[in-house]
Write a structure and sequence with these properties.
CATH class: Alpha Beta
Largest sheet: 7 strands, parallel
CATH superfamily: NAD(P)-binding Rossmann-like Domain
Strand order of the largest sheet: 3-2-1-4-5-6-7
CATH architecture: 3-Layer(aba) Sandwich
Strand content: 15-25%
Distance between the termini: 36 Å
Number of helices: 8
Number of strands: 7
Helix content: 40-55%
């Protein structure tokens, strides 16, 4: 049997990048996947690809910074599938890699709302469902920028430090209710945000400088993150909670 067979997985930011990779992989492992994204058309495309491959998926348009939108997303999931087993808080954004005082207030607020408030809102609406069911799993997609912040992405790194601390606090508080909470720290990856993360223009030379800092010699890929998330979401990880798993090719060594 597939290790996520018949689990209902709700993945935010699943219209592209790491989220799309997780949605496709979870579906291959037997999960019923709710593909949630701010871009309704992107969510629909990924859900259609899953169904075309024989899987089960439902697209949902969501703004993870708005309470009512997150509430509606969780409600739609439960209405469609009758339950919720896995919440992946993957939707995220960043400011441009630049000196810390060059980031304006609106960008700061947007990054913190998307990367941090979304975890609060996700818990607010998913945890009551998990409690009714007797358990569940939350996975927060953080970053190597959390444990290893670097110049240029200072405020973004703060959001990922928050995601890691929230993961540990939530895990400790929710463990007696059989709700596991873990995080994943990807190194810079091949996603739509790559150009903003890079210091300067996106060029082969700039990418080469980043890759030189990763012992295993490449950027992360969506499938790398998807495999780690599938493990943490599965019964294979039933005794693992409160970890921030680095999927980083050795970047944080």
């Amino acid at each position: 049997m597939n290790k996520l067979q018949d689990r209902v997985a709700l993945i935010t930011g699943a219209g592209g990048g790491f989220g799309e990779g997780m949605a496709l992989h979870f579906a291959e492992l037997g999960a019923q996947v709710v593909v949630a994204d701010l871009r309704a058309d992107a969510a629909q495309q990924v859900a259609s690809a899953i169904e075309a491959a024989g899987g089960q998926a439902m697209p949902v348009q969501v703004d993870v910074t708005l309470n009512a939108s997150v509430e509606a997303m969780v409600a739609a999931t439960v209405k469609r599938y009758g339950r919720l087993d896995i919440l992946v808080n993957n939707a995220g954004t960043t400011h441009k890699n630049q000196p810390l005082l060059d980031t304006d207030e609106a960008s700061f607020d947007r990054v913190y709302a998307t990367n941090v408030k979304s975890i609060f809102l996700g818990a607010r609406h998913a945890v009551p469902v998990f409690r009714r069911q007797g358990g569940g799993v939350i996975i927060n997609i953080a970053s190597t920028a959390g444990p290893r912040p670097r110049p240029g992405l200072v405020w973004y790194a703060g959001t990922k430090g928050a995601a890691i601390t929230l993961t540990k606090g939530m895990a400790a508080e929710l463990a007696p209710e059989h709700i596991r909470v873990n995080a994943i720290n990807p190194v810079m990856g091949e996603t739509g945000l790559l150009a903003d993360f890079l210091p300067g223009e996106d060029s082969e030379a700039v990418r080469a400088k980043i890759i030189a800092t990763i012992p295993l010699g490449r950027l992360s890929r969506p499938l790398d993150i998807a495999k780690a998330a599938a493990f943490l979401a599965s019964d294979e990880a039933e005794f693992i909670t409160g970890v921030a798993l680095e999927v980083d090719g050795g970047r944080c060594i």
